[in-house]
Amino acid sequence: AVLEYELPAPGVVDFTHTFVPPELRGHGFAEALVQAGLAWAREKNFRVEASCVYVARVLERGKK
Predict the structure, then answer these.
(1) Model confidence over 43-55: pLDDT tens digits?
(2) DSSP helix/strand/coil, 4
(3) Which helix (H) or strand (E) holds 30?
(4) What is the pTM of this model?
(5) How far apart are CA 39 and CA 32, in angstroms?
(6) Looking at residue 20, what DSSP letter applies?
(7) CB-based burial of residue 18 (10 Å sphere; 0-12 exposed, 13-18 middle, 19+ buried)?
(8) Phi, psi for 57 (deg, rounded to 5)
(9) How far apart are CA 56 and CA 16, in angstroms?
(10) Which of 23, 46, 56, 58 is a plausible cystine mate for 13, CB 3.0–4.6 Å?
(11) Burial category of 51 from C-beta neighbours within 10 Å (exposed 0-12, middle 13-18, buried 19 and up)
């Protein structure tokens, strides 16, 4: 499983892609990857962007 990202500008991280192999889906791995990535971004004081639809959904859920 992977969470891909880019650093398009100083202080900015863009999470671009999340992938979990089919045989591992449905077990929370994508959510765990995204939460770990967001924790890392907070630790680094990065502004977060989400080109990845899944990451964008997780961020939106967190706003509610």
Answers:
(1) 999 999 999 999 9
(2) strand
(3) helix 29-43
(4) 0.91
(5) 10
(6) -
(7) buried
(8) -65, -40
(9) 10
(10) 46
(11) middle
Question: Cβ distance 34 to 53 under 8 Å?
Answer: no
3-class SS at 8? Answer: strand
- Contact partners, residue 34, CB within 8 Å, separation at least 6: 3, 15, 18, 54, 55, 58
Q: CA 5 to CA 60: how far, in whole Å?
A: 18
Segments of the chain with pLDDT less than 70? 64
Task: Check if the beta carbon of residue 30 is closer than 8 Å to that of residue 64.
Answer: no
- Burial (CB < 10 A; 0-12, 13-18, 19+), residue 60, is exposed
Rounded to an integer, what distance in angstroms lies between the CA atom of residue 4 and that of residue 15? Answer: 6
